[in-house]
Amino acid sequence: MSQIKHLLLLTVLAIATPLRGQDLGDIALLVFEQDQQKATAQLELGLRSEDPRLRAAAARVAGVRKLQPVLPLLKSVARKEANAEAAREELRAIILLGGEKELDEALLVSQRFDSRLDASVATTLARTGVSPTLFFTRLNALSSRGEFLRIALWHRPQLLTPILARALGQSDGGLWSNLLDLLEQSEYVLDPALAAAALGSPSLDIRSDTLWHLTDQIRLRKSAVPASVLQSIDQNGENKSSRVDIAFGQELLRRLAGRAAVTRPEWLVWLKTEEARKLLDLRSPRESLTQTEFKVFRARWKVLSPAWDPTVEPVMVADPQFLVPSTLPKGLAGAVMAKLKCKSQWVGVGGAAIDSAGRISQTDLSAVVTTEPCRKALETLLRLSLATNTSLTSKFVSKNVVLVRAQRAPLCLDESDVASVSTMRNAEASPRPVANDVKEPRVKRRIEPVFPEDVRKHLPSGSVVRVTAQAVISETGCVRNPFLVAQSPYPTINTSALLALSEWTFDPTTLDGETIPVIFHLTVNFRK
What is this structure's pTM? Predict the structure, then answer.
């Protein structure tokens, strides 16, 4: 009898051991498991765990692996889930695997968390190819507009004009601004008839945003000002608005159409304002302003004249097709690094292919300089990611994925906690550009880049080499996804700037009392 009891005890222990011994690293590595039945069984153990981190990690792997057999258990676990962060990941996986038909149940689960998961549900739904018109009928109050529409409209240009027309008809200035931002990041052009109508909108914000969008796009594309736009400006121009930004924007479009420049005293005063700096800063004011206007603007904002430009001109770099690695359930990235014993930096340009949901199907890290344990860790982090397109025209394959992390830099891949206050419940934590109420983050720890000796010794004294980088500053103040928007012709300088930036830390930016991720630009001058 005692032998039977001993055997039964061993059997129980054998069954229980995989559940008790399973850790985050084990679950993460299931992204590579070729045996689907084995992967499914192990993920189901993770979903049944008492540890919410394991449940969240198992849900992430199920979603990126497209493991449909896990869906029933995912739904059962989500109905009883008590942890907001685990529920967020479970709902993502449910939507990725089940699509729009799971929306009602997902929103019911979110209600148990005061609807704080609605934005995540909506943004994930956008990844499944759902019709963007659902945004107006059910998701308008749920989602981060720009994030949802950038994903939902990805490679679906035929839907742009109807949605723009709907936003204009509703005088929805916020949505109109989001859509113009998406147009600026793509190859698509605002329909001239819609543009003309927008310039006569009762919403002054829509008028202003349209004017400055057209000014920028016409100058960059070197295209003609449409006759319908000029006619609308003339009809809605003189003395029709007390806002100087609108009057000056109308004047710039007239100049782009070849009309003689007119200047006014109130415009010169306005050029000294913060609003003017934000509108003109990236729009090459030397091309658009009269000599007097430019002198006023330069004197106030210290804009560089051609004589002050760097010795070595930077070269503009196209934005990446998508950003990876993405944020992961809290603790998962660190567990991957520990499991695979990665303790080194990585730097280089890799390749990746994604599907329309952002799941990574192929990687090429052969050109990334790192150790083999870190190469495996980096590939694991990528396979766990849900990539987000940077524009409406982003390609599904990229050979120019910038992957940079200094050895001492924070991983910066933990997703933030679910917002705890109602004012943030409908905001998915997508990075915000610095503007208006979104302030630039303040540097807390700065690492100066090293001027590579191989470049320094070949440059004449007094030389200046400039590069400009962009990165996301997270809610905790660390640097994520750095890349160059303007690079030098010297690869070692470009690498030095990115490695240094990856180690910077910041005081996080706050909005309405909550910390938020922001898009940060940094210009680095290497002076000899």
Answer: 0.86
**Nearest of 468, 475, 477 to residue 498 by alpha carbon:** 468
**Dihedrals phi, psi of 324, to nearest 5 degrees:** -145, 155
State whether 324 and 447 are in the same domain. Answer: yes
For the chain, the domain total comes to 3
**Same domain? 12 vs 85:** yes
- Structural domain including 465 reads 319-527
Residue 150 and residue 391 in contact, taking contact as beta carbons nearer than 8 Å: yes
Cβ neighbour number for residue 176 with a 10 Å cutoff: 24
My answer on whether omega of the bond before 373 falls inside 30° of 0, hence cis, is no
What is the number of residues in the chain?
528
Q: How many helices (H) and strands (E) does the chain have?
A: 24, 14
The first and second tokens of residue 132, run together, are 């963007």
Judge whether 423 and 511 are in contact, CB under 8 Å: no
**Cα torsion at 511, 515, 517, 522 (round to 10°)?**
80
One domain for residues 285 and 323 = no
Is 258 a domain residue? yes
What contacts 294, CB < 8 A, 6 or more positions away? 285, 286, 303
Residue 457 token pair: 């010794």
* Together in a domain, 67 and 193: no
Among residues 424, 510, 427, the alpha carbon closest in space to that of 475 is found at 510
pLDDT in tens, the chain (528 residues): 444 443 333 333 333 334 347 899 999 999 999 999 999 999 999 999 999 999 999 999 999 999 999 999 999 999 999 999 999 999 999 999 999 999 999 999 999 998 889 889 988 999 998 877 776 777 665 556 778 888 989 988 888 888 899 999 999 998 899 899 889 888 889 999 999 999 999 999 999 999 999 998 898 888 899 999 999 998 876 545 579 999 999 999 999 999 999 989 999 999 999 888 888 865 555 678 898 998 888 888 765 444 445 567 778 888 899 999 999 999 999 999 999 999 999 999 999 999 999 999 999 999 999 999 999 999 999 999 999 999 999 999 999 999 999 999 999 999 988 875 444 434 455 788 777 678 889 999 999 999 999 999 888 888 889 899 999 999 999 999 999 999 999 999 999 999 999 999 999 988 877 888 999 998 888 988
